[in-house]
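Usage example:
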Amino acid sequence: MPYDPLIPQQEPGGSSDEGLTPHEPAPDIAGDQIALPESYNQNRLVLLPVNPRTQHLYWHIERDEIRRHFNDSSVHLQLELLLPEPGERVIEAVEISHLSGSTYTYHDLNFQKLQARLIGTQEGKRCVLLESAIITTPSGTTHSSPWEIWITKGQEGLTRTQKEQQGPPPESLGAPSSLDQSLDRQQQQMRAARLGLSNPSSDHGSPDHFSSEALHKKREK
Amino acid sequence: MQPKGYLSLVLHSHLPFVKHPEHDYFLEEHWLFEAILESYLPLLINLNALKREGTPFCLSVSLTPTLCEMLSDTHLMEKFDRHLNKLIELADKECERLAENRELHTVARFYQERLGQLKRFFEQELNCSVLDGYRALHRSGHLEILTCGATHGFLPLLSVNPKSIQVQLEIAVRTHKKHFGVPPRGIWLPECAYYEGLDEALSDVGIEFFFLESHALAYGRPTPRFGLYAPIFTPKGVAAFARDPESSRQVWSSIVGYPGDFDYRDFYRDIGYEREMAYIAPYICPDGTRVFTGLKYHRITGEGEDKAVYNPATALSRAQEHAYNFIFNREKQVEHLSHYMDRPPLITSPYDAELFGHWWFEGPEFLYHLFRALSQSPHLEAITPAGYLERYPTNQMIHPSPSSWGKNGYYEVWLNRDNDWIYRHLHRMADRLSALACHHQNEPDGPKRRLLNQMSRELLLAQSSDWAFLITPATATHYATKRTKEHISHFLRLEQMLKEETIDEGFLNWLEQRHSLFEGEEFTLWC
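Running the assembly step on the lines above writes:
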């Protein structure tokens, strides 16, 4: 296994047996050997936003839950993604064949309420088996409004005032047309370095080949 | 006289909870020791120097609950003391070894003196308590200390269980009170991550303000009149301050960032990797794994493998120049911005605290000179977020966009195909603990209560955003996966013990000793 500064060389992590306490339990096993339950037998449908264009879903439904609504097991299951307001509008429906699973969906949704449902259908009967919470998707664009609301926070609490909007703010006030991804990248690398993971950037003044060499050195024992 | 603009500097200090009392030496505990030695102590030394000189300054520092708990942990601080003494011994050895090499010997002497100064400061001025250093500056009004989520949980992805958010925030506030004697006014949201509705949970625990990535406001609803240069209020009346990209870029950017200056110390060339094993062995991992020692003799120099010897005096002089350049640029910035605003613009510049010193060795001196330069500026004044809100209590109401300061600005660093398996466990654990907490809330003191308290700690530790962040290719997948799975499996084992009413006291004691944070916090918070 290649050396990684965060991976202990002897389980459970220390490099020396000195100092083991008398009550030390049996050594832990490696992370990838710890078995976690495949399922908790809990009915659940969860919808999570990833970014303005991507959503993540995972679900689990017990066979008993389906039987509570339908006579036998020949039920078609379908995941629906819907905009709950104003009025309900289904934007995607996908048939599923497993009682547990996860998936990603791709819809460009800026600042919209979104919900998922697990629907069962059988011979014309349709039933909502599971519902996710309603989430708000992230925004990837600017938003204008004819009104501005201003809040004053004082001893008495919040006072709200409504004003007419006076034109959009100039771009120089920081409304970006796109995110500065180079900045993001730099920060992620830096954070990895902070945690001792290193290779925080070939471009903080050190050229690429040097960084690679340094990383290689780190991996040497 | 009113300045043309304000600068609010924010340093976010965080490390995940790592404590292994069962080992004399543990690699990952050195994250903390390096951060103390290279970032926190140098920062406190420089801020104290400003205070002694009477230079006016103020800034905000977030100290996460996990970091506060580690900094006040006797076992970890004893290990830190041993670590520091070993480094001092190594620096002495280096001075002897390099006695004949004038250039390198100068650098070795620099480290010898510096480590001695750090030790004296830590022992004599801080009484071996890093937190005392922060407390003193907080009391004198120079530091505004912020809190953060209890274990730096990525709140938007935990919000499936509102109880998780409530407990992450309540424990954050209570831990802050425990360490600093007062409740926090502001919070650094873990990973700067926001979702719609979080402001209500913040308001419920008395938080008055927080920080957001730039586009959270720029893409908010509506786009704010003053862009990123004035705080906004969320619908619940909590203030939010957005990061200024321009000042961030000057420090972070690979192209225009200061830390890449050729005169600054090179991060990689460290004697922990360069000296022969027989010589360096007592100062690295006992099994021979090489580690950074912090003793580095070269400067960045330029593009190429040949590195020139580091010159501390030249580097510190560059830090001073860069600090004055930073303030010059902020003055120009507020001059420009003030044309569009009815109040002095506020530039909010947040950084990871560990950037200063650990990665950018001269960073703490840069900050020292930054405040010196700022004190001489007729146009710009340092201010804390709370100070700005006191002067300007009327602000526009905006719905910030869900966002984070991770790569691409949203949630994908913490939710992608490599790490999405975590969440179904975390969500189920939170559900389960809430149910158990309600069922056992009147349980008398005893093993069951201790067990439930430990279940709460294991869940909170599993929720730490650090693990999901590190489960990405080319970082620390194995360690992060192991930590996540360990906390989940500990939780499940404790749950099983509770169900079967057969408590393995040895296992429980071991967990309590190893994951000993948030002592006194009761599981009933989950009810």
